[in-house]
Design goal:
Blueprint: H1 2-12, H2 31-39, E1 48-53, E2 58-64, E3 70-77, E4 80-81, E5 99-104, E6 108-109, E7 117-119, H3 125-129, E8 138-140, E9 149-150, H4 153-168, E10 173-179, H5 185-190, H6 197-213, E11 219-222, E12 225-228, H7 253-271, H8 291-297, H9 299-305
Parallel strand pairs: 1-10, 8-9
Antiparallel strand pairs: 1-2, 2-3, 4-9, 5-10, 6-7, 7-8, 11-12
GO molecular function: carboxypeptidase activity; transferase activity
Pathway: Cell wall biogenesis; peptidoglycan biosynthesis
Organism: Aminobacter anthyllidis
C-alpha cells in the first residue's frame, strides 16, 4: 500500500495528504521578519506577490508598502525542483510549472504531507485551454519534488505564515509568477534557440511590467498566450485560444523602454564572443547553498532542520542539479 501511495505521488505531482494535524499552520510570522516589514513601511496584513526563478532556485516574497507599490521583502533558496526549464504540459512529466497563478485561502494546505503547502492552481485557464493537465502542483516543505517547488520545512513555514496573514488582511488571492530564470537580456540571449523561447518572451512581458511599475499586473488570456494590463473592447476575452479582441494601448513608456533596452542587450550578447554554457542539470535543480548540507545531513534531515539563517542567498549563474537528491 505504501508503494502504491508513493507511485501515485510521483505520477500525479506533489499530492498533499496527512494522517495527523498540529498547529504548524498557525505559527506566527517570525518577529525578525515582522520587524523588517515595519522598517519598510509594511504590515503583515498587506498584500503579497511571490516570484519563482527555476534556474537560480530562488523564491521571492514581495509585499505592498504604504506607497501602494511592491517591494522585495525576502528571498528564499529552494531546496529542490524537478524537470527542466520550460512549462508543464502533462501529468507525470515531473515538470515544475511556469506561468502566472493566483492562490486563494482555500488553496493553502495546513495538512500537507510535506509539512505545509499551497496549491499553485495549475492548470490555469490558459493551460487548460491548451490541453495541459496535471494536479496538486505545490510550493511545499521537505526537499523532494515531482513537479513542485520544495523549500525546507523552515522555509515554507515562514512563507506560509506571510501568505496566510496577507489573505486574512483582505487580499482575495496572491499572484505567483513562476519563471524559468531571471529574465535578463543575457539569459534571454542564452536561451534564444530553445523551443520555449516565444513562451518565455510572453512571460517576460508580465515580468517587466512588475519590474518597472512594482504593481501586480492583471492577467488575461487570448491568442494562446498571456496578455497583461489590457483593456479589451467588449470586455474580457472568454476563449484563451481565440484571437485577442481589439484593445486599448496602455503600455507604459518605462516598460517599452525596458523592453527595447533588453532587446538591444540580447542582440549585443548574441553578436559578441560570449559562449553560453548549456544547462548543467539532468533533472531539476537545487540552490547551491544546500549542497554541502545535503551531503552532510541527507535530504530528510535537511528538510526538517535547516535554519533559514544558515542559508545565505547568492545570485548564481545556474543552480546545478544533483541527480541523487530526490527520493522519488
Amino acid at each position: 500500500m505504501v508503494v502504491l501511495i508513493a507511485l501515485s505521488a510521483a505520477i500525479s505531482g506533489c499530492v498533499s495528504t496527512v494522517l495527523e494535524v498540529d498547529n504548524k499552520s498557525g505559527q506566527p510570522i517570525p518577529a525578525k521578519l515582522v520587524g523588517e516589514m515595519s522598517k519598510r513601511k509594511m504590515s503583515p496584513a498587506d498584500p503579497v506577490v511571490i516570484r519563482i526563478f527555476k534556474e537560480e532556485s530562488e523564491l521571492e516574497i514581495w509585499k505592498r508598502d504604504r506607497t501602494g507599490r511592491y517591494a522585495l521583502l525576502k528571498t528564499y533558496p529552494m531546496c529542490r525542483w524537478s524537470g527542466k526549464l520550460g512549462p508543464k504540459t502533462k501529468n507525470g512529466d515531473r515538470q515544475a510549472p511556469e506561468g502566472f497563478y493566483h492562490v486563494s485561502a482555500g488553496m493553502l494546505n495546513p495538512n500537507s504531507q510535506y509539512y505545509l503547502s499551497f496549491n499553485l492552481g495549475y492548470p490555469n485557464r490558459l493551460e487548460s485551454a491548451l490541453g495541459y493537465d496535471g494536479e496538486a502542483l505545490m510550493v511545499h516543505g521537505a526537499c523532494s519534488s515531482s513537479g513542485c517547488y520544495a523549500l525546507t520545512d523552515a522555509g515554507v513555514a515562514e512563507i506560509y505564515a506571510v501568505a496566510r496573514e496577507a489573505l486574512k488582511g483582505g487580499q482575495t488571492a496572491f499572484q505567483v509568477q513562476a519563471f524559468p530564470f531571471r529574465m535578463t537580456a543575457e539569459n534571454m540571449a542564452k536561451n534564444r534557440g530553445d523551443p520555449n523561447f516565444d513562451f518565455w518572451t510572453n512571460l517576460k512581458q508580465g515580468h517587466d511590467l512588475f519590474e518597472v511599475s512594482k504593481r501586480q499586473p492583471t492577467v488575461s488570456y487570448c491568442g494562446r498566450r498571456y496578455v497583461f494590463d489590457a483593456e479589451f473592447e467588449g470586455g474580457e476575452p472568454r476563449d484563451p485560444l481565440a484571437s485577442c479582441p481589439p484593445q486599448l494601448n496602455l503600455e507604459q513608456p518605462a516598460v517599452a523602454a525596458k523592453r527595447d533596452a533588453d532587446l538591444r542587450g540580447m542582440e549585443a550578447a548574441l553578436a559578441g564572443d560570449v559562449t553560453f554554457s548549456a544547462h548543467a542539470y539532468s533533472d531539476g535543480g537545487m540552490h547551491p547553498s544546500f549542497r554541502n548540507q545535503l551531503k552532510k545531513r541527507g535530504a530528510e534531515e535537511l528538510a526538517k532542520k535547516t535554519s533559514l539563517s544558515e542559508v545565505p542567498i547568492s545570485r548564481p549563474d545556474a543552480a546545478l542539479a544533483d541527480p541523487h537528491n530526490s527520493d522519488e
